[in-house]
User: Fold this.
Amino acid sequence: MGKTKIIGIISLISLIMNGILGYFFLFLFHFNISPLALILYASIIAELIGIFMMFYTIRNLNVKIEQNIPIKKIIITTITKSSYYPALSNLSFHIGSFLLFLFCSTYFSLNETAILTLMLSYWGLLLVPAEAFSETSLNLFSLLISRKQNCFFLQLRSNIILTSLYVSVILFTAILFMDIIIYDTTLYKITLIFNIILLVIVGTFNEIFSISLIVKFKNRLFALSKIIYGSIAIIFTVVLTLILENRAIAILLSLLIAQLCTFFFLRRKSTQLWTK
Assistant:
C-alpha cells in the first residue's frame, strides 16, 4: 500500500516552510536583489527540506516482504542501465531551468524576466507532444529490436517526428490565437515566438533521437549529448547576454544554438547505430 499520508504530511510541511521563508526573505531581511529571486530562493530551500525529509523517511521505512522471489542480477543491471542516465538527465534539466530562471530574475529587469518566462512556458507546452510521442517511440523501437526489423527504423522515426510536429502545430495555433487576444502583438514578441518555434522543431527531433539511443542502451552517448547541450547553452548564454542588448533573445538564441549542435550529434549517432 502506498504511503500517501506520509507524502501528504511532507508536502504540507514543505508548503508551510515555503510561506515562512518567503515572508522572512521579503519582509524581515533586506536583500538587494529582485523579490522574484527571493521567492525562488525560498521555494528551492523548501523543496530541499522536503527532499531530505523524503530521503530520511525512505531510509527508515520498514518494507515487509511477503514472498521471496529470486531476481537475476542481469535484470537489475538492465533496469539500472535503462533508468540511471535518463533520470539524471531529467534532474539536470530541472536544476538547469531553475538556475536559468534564477539568473534572469536576479540580473534582468522584471519586464525581461516576465516576457522570457512567458516564452519558456509556451515552449514547455509545445514540447508536450514530443514528450508523449517519446513514450510511443520507446515501445515501437523496442518492438523493432525484438523482431529484428531495424530496416524499418528510419521510416518509423520520421513518422513519429512528423506526427508529433503536427500536434505541436495545432497546439501552437491555439496558443498564438489566445496570445493575440490577451496580449499586444509586437515585432519583438514575434521574434521571440519564432525562436520558440525553432526550439520546438529541433527539440522534437532531439527527443526522438535520444530515445533511439536509450533503447539500444547507448547511455554514454545519451549522456554525452546532454553534456554537449548544457555546455554550449551555458557558454552562449554568458557570451550573448553580454553582447546583445536584448537579453531574452540572447537566452533563446543560446538555447537554439545548443539544440542545433545536439541535433547534428544525435542524428549522426542514431542513424549510424540503427543502420549499420
Observations:
- The mean pLDDT is 81.
- The radius of gyration is 22 Å.
- The chain has nine helices and no strands.
